[in-house]
Specification:
- This protein has 11 helices and 9 strands.
- It has helices at residues 11-22, 56-60, 78-90, 111-122, 131-137, 154-166, 185-196, 207-216, 221-235, 245-250, 257-264; strands at 2-5, 27-31, 42-45, 64-69, 95-98, 139-142, 149-150, 182-183, 201-204.
- By secondary structure, the protein is of the alpha/beta class.
- β4 (64-69), α3 and β5 form a beta-alpha-beta unit.
- A 5-stranded parallel sheet has the order 3-2-1-4-5, sandwiched between helices.
Length: 269
Amino acid sequence: MTTLLTGGTGKTSLRIARLLSSGNHPYIVASRSGTSPIRDGLPCKFDWNDSSTWRNPWDLSPDIKAVWLVVPGILEPIKMLKPFVEMARSRGCERFVLLSASVIEEGGPMTGEVHRYLRELEGNMSEAHHRPTIRDEGKIYSATGDGKLAWVSCGDIAAVTYRALVDDESHDCEHIVYGRELLGYGDLASILTDVLGKPVTHVHLTESELAERYTKFGVPEEYAKILAEKDTNIKNGGEEHLNDTVEKVTGKPPKTFREFAEENKAVWE
């Protein structure tokens, strides 16, 4: 059984690829560049905005049975995801694992519609934008106030995804992946100050100020507003949740943020 990784050069996909390699599971790395940074991965040119490339993975390996879905940051990804999934199913693919976010409800905007679509199918079958400012300014900008959330590393997400892709029995469920502790951006700033040995502060913005900041970086206005609204949800306590998903699925507890920061401090220095 071959696994297809869309967004193949992304940070979570790379970690999944390493796990697939270590488990001797064949996989295809699909990306717009058509290259694979992992030696064992079969590279494939794939672009969500060009449907003529969607069949390329099956030209390389007709036995693709599982797909890791990483969709572009657009308002209605369902418009491209649905025809892709239908095409994949027609070629015998049986399992789809979607990268989403706990703040996006099933049926909601962005990946929420995709989530609902995949859920309906089930009845029939089964950190990066903060990096430059931390490194260059010693600042984290958000509209989350003192709100907290369960930060989780890409490695832990990848470990859960790996099991969902390769286990003999399809999980057929929604895995909400949380970290092991509730931390606000102020807490993160304090930990980073300690780990990096330089001051890092949390800059409190309003929702409208954050949306404006996103648009200045080229994010479409409507999408920027939705992203900023997610910060307000965190501010109001909407993400103060913990669970045992990572340990239950993988057998290991998730990393703390301090552990993650110690392992990756070079990216902020």
